TrEMBL record:
Top enzyme category: transferase
Record EC number: 2.5.1.7
Source taxon at top rank: Bacteria
GO terms for cellular component: cytoplasm
Pathway: Cell wall biogenesis; peptidoglycan biosynthesis
Active-site residues, Swiss-Prot/TrEMBL: C117
Name of this protein: UDP-N-acetylglucosamine 1-carboxyvinyltransferase
UniProt key word RNA-binding: no
Modified residues (2-(S-cysteinyl)pyruvic acid O-phosphothioketal): C117
Gene name linked to the record: murA
Catalysed reaction, written as an equation: phosphoenolpyruvate + UDP-N-acetyl-alpha-D-glucosamine = UDP-N-acetyl-3-O-(1-carboxyvinyl)-alpha-D-glucosamine + phosphate
Length: 418
């Protein structure tokens, strides 16, 4: 089994280029299924999840080719099957995002039920309710969700009980080819939703209001391929910001949109970290004294749940007591036990974790229980005394482009070993 070995104690400095956003690129690749001519996507990060969604499209009969270092050419002129099998959906829940485009374009889809994962049960009821409102028939059986709309979908008014990111994306994609208007109320506001809407509009869709409280979609007859560059990854950026903060370093981030990072910037500043817009990027400098802060995760523009574990790693060595409340997922504290093994003082009380800052952490063997938990352990390893040996790094490979070489470029002692 491959592992990451991190030797703590280095102060990080230098510049790091942030890659295209994982959570934008996955729905965007799914969205290209709606096009009857090829699309070219740029700023594609080198991630396991990108390989998995490309395999899903390949299984559907679509050609997905890497072009150069960071582009993908996707030819979805012909779709030969509408089934996403268990082996692929099990590897990556976002495979469910092909359901909306398939239903819209082919009038059917068969997707394996994704099941729960380390961070929660993660039902998909809101996606299915949305498809039903658009006129699809949904049947569950043999571990698959079968959706059918043989006569096409029809626009509808849909209210989401919770602003689910995936449901907003899936319903928005399905509604692009529906007859008439769809009004999606209480949708998710995440920047990745806006990036997807921009792609779809460039393909010929008529979507207004993405990023606001109401999204209106006028159905059109056909979408064509386009060229689109994916937005920078705000969670990868946040992770390197925490790396600067936790090591007392000085890092310049290239290719960031600070507008998307407002809640992360606000919380890091509250903890004493200096953050300045500089040279088309962000300069992040560690604090003299890191202060304890309270954090509550919320849908965008609130504090992102995908940064909760990394911030917890930082707060384990802050002065004072921090309270971190997770409201988006019901079980996203798997990293707590691993951080405690490194000497952190954390107690869980329902949906909150109470983090009592300690003077230092110590390296030991730990395991990445999910993607961001893995990132949190890398960050903790950067300041721990001695070596931190992180196992189950396939989780980290899902969502961090060239993590080892990016950290090495900043001066970290980190290597990947078998
Ligand atoms: C590929 C991708 O973009 N992943 C992101 C996306 O996941 P994802 O799209 O799965 O997250 P959602 O916004 O849908 O989920 C948020 C909450 O809503 C619940 N829910 C969701 C759908 C549904 O039909 N029913 C339901 O109850 C979930 O269980 C969870 O508790 O947004 C999450 C919240 O910002 C991020 O952590 C993930 O990184
Ligand atoms: C939870 C995450 O991703 P996914 O929804 O793909 O599991 C994440 O990116 O932190």
């Amino acid at each position: 089994m491959e592992k990451l070995i991190v030797t703590g104690g280095k102060t990080l400095s230098g510049s790091v280029k942030i890659s295209g956003a994982k959570n934008a690129v996955l729905p965007i690749i799914a969205g290209t299924l709606l096009g009857t001519t090829p699309s070219v996507l740029e700023e594609i990060p080198d991630l396991e999840d990108v390989r998995t969604i490309s395999e899903v499209l390949g299984h559907l009969g679509v050609s997905v080719q890497r072009e150069g270092d960071n582009s993908l050419c996707i030819d979805s002129t012909n779709i030969t099957t509408c089934e996403a099998p268990y082996e692929l959906v099990r590897k990556m829940r976002a495979s469910i995002l092909v359901m909306g485009p398939l239903l819209a374009r082919e009038g059917e889809s068969q997707i394996s039920l994704p099941g729960g994962c380390a961070i929660g049960t993660r039902p998909i009821d809101l996606h299915l309710k949305g498809f039903e409102a658009l006129g699809a028939e949904i049947v569950l059986g043999h571990g698959y969700i079968e959706a059918k709309a043989p006569h096409g979908l029809t626009g509808a008014r849909i209210y989401l009980d919770f602003p689910s990111v995936g449901a907003t994306e899936n319903i928005m994609m399905a509604a692009c080819l529906a007859k008439g208007q769809t009004i999606l109320e209480n949708p998710a506001h995440e920047p990745e939703i806006v990036d997807l809407a921009n792609l779809l509009n460039a393909m010929g869709a008529r979507i207004r209001g993405a990023g606001t409280n109401v999204i209106k979609i006028e159905g059109v007859k056909e979408l064509k391929g386009t060229t689109h560059a994916v937005i920078p990854d705000r969670i990868e950026a946040g992770t390197y910001m925490v790396a600067a903060a936790i090591t007392g370093g000085d890092i310049h981030l290239e290719n960031v949109l600070s507008e998307h990072l407002k809640p992360v910037i606000a919380k890091l500043k509250e903890a004493g970290v200096s953050i300045d817009e500089e040279n088309d990027g962000l300069r992040v400098r560690g604090a003299e004294t890191l202060r304890a802060i309270d954090i509550k995760t919320l849908p965008y523009p609130g504090f992102p749940t995908d940064m909760q574990a990394q911030m917890m790693a930082l707060l384990t060595v802050a002065h004072g007591t921090s309270v971190i409340t997770e409201t988006v997922f019901e079980n996203r504290f798997m990293h707590v036990d691993e951080l405690k093994r490194m000497g952190a003082n954390i107690k869980i009380d329902g949906r909150s974790a109470v983090v009592e800052g300690v003077p230092n952490l110590t390296g030991c063997p730990v395991k990445a229980t999910d993607l961001r938990a893995g990132a949190a352990l890398v960050l903790a390893g950067l300041i721990a005394e001695g070596q931190t040996e992180i196992g189950y790094i396939h989780h980290i490979d899902r969502g961090y482009d060239n993590l080892v070489s990016k950290f090495q470029g900043l001066g970290a002692l980190i290597e990947r070993v078998d």
